[in-house]
Design goal:
It is built from 16 helices and no strands. It is mainly α. Helix 14 runs antiparallel to helix 16.
Length: about 300
């Protein structure tokens, strides 16, 4: 009996592809910083309401990621670091990514308003708009200051978490915002120093592309100096203390030392060791932010004890 072969068409996207569309690594940072902002706030929330609030903030962060991947599919397809994402890889059609992102945006904002308060929900809606429209559609392709101004989108989550608990804004939440806001440029510019070819091919006007690596190195070091006072200032607020200040002092000393090392490097030195120092500084920047927010949690628990 002859074997019958049926054509089933292209494979459908799996659950994992839609998870990837939400940028889970970025979402994990959103969830963690939002949780810290909520937890250290001076108002105690019902645990179930707090859980729901973080869940809906996470969905809002994922919605931003999906909208970003929808609009940036052309750029992502050119860059080696992003070519495997679901949309440029052909796993999820652009229109599906757009619909998914819009649906999650509406759901996350509506549910956060019902679970926590409408001020926090409006803040989440503004954050999604800022990341998807102001940063992705405008700043990213038009100015080398894209990551500076656009970094505000990633700095809003702890303020949203704080707003879920308090219904407003405080100096503490503003300083948590400042900590992420001033950390973002040196973090991404360090990445751009050793991934510059990707940005050049994609036509993204990162500072390394428009002004060169030497200028970028000066900016990296300059921002480490601007960042340190805001990070330490947080330790003198109602959510700070000796635990946070001790950890922050060490981290900022390391971060400034790393920035100084990058500033003094020539391109010949960097190319000679395959940007080893820049890659190490980029990894340090990840620990820097995580450990600052972890220190806030530890400080809160020490204070409660």
């Amino acid at each position: 009996m002859a074997e019958i072969n049926a054509y089933h068409g292209p494979a459908e996207a799996g659950f994992g592809d839609y998870v990837a569309l939400l940028k889970p690594r970025v979402m994990s940072l959103v969830v963690f910083t939002a949780f810290v902002g909520l937890w250290v706030a001076p108002v105690t929330m019902n645990p179930f309401v707090a859980f729901c609030s973080i869940l809906f903030i996470a969905l809002g962060g994922g919605a931003s990621g999906a909208l970003n991947m929808w609009y940036d599919a052309d750029i992502d397809a050119v860059m080696k670091r992003t070519a495997g994402r679901p949309v440029p890889a052909g796993l999820i059609p652009k229109q599906d990514a757009l619909a998914f992102g819009l649906a999650l945006s509406g759901l996350s904002v509506m549910m956060l308003g019902l679970a926590a308060n409408w001020f926090a929900a409006a803040f989440l809606a503004f954050t999604i708009f800022f990341y998807a429209v102001v940063y992705t559609m405008w700043l990213k392709r038009s100015t080398p200051q894209n990551i500076v101004i656009g970094g505000a989108a990633g700095a809003f989550p702890p303020m949203i978490g704080w707003a879920c608990a308090t219904g407003g804004i405080g100096i503490e939440s503003l300083l948590m915002f400042a900590l992420i806001f001033f950390w973002t440029p040196p973090h991404f510019w360090a990445l751009a120093l050793f991934m510059n070819n990707d940005y050049t091919k994609a036509g993204v006007p990162m500072l390394t592309v428009t002004h060169g690596r030497k200028v970028t190195r000066r900016h990296v070091f300059g921002y480490t100096l601007v960042l340190a006072p805001f990070a330490l200032w947080l330790g003198f607020t109602s959510i700070g203390g000796w635990v946070y200040l001790s950890i922050s002092a060490v981290l900022n000393a390391l971060f400034i030392a790393g920035g100084w090392q990058i500033l003094r490097r020539t391109e010949d030195q960097a190319q000679g060791d395959s940007y080893k120092v820049e890659k190490r500084y980029f990894r340090l920047s990840l620990y820097y932010l995580f450990l600052h927010f972890l220190a806030l949690l530890v400080q809160h628990w020490v204070g409660a004890w």
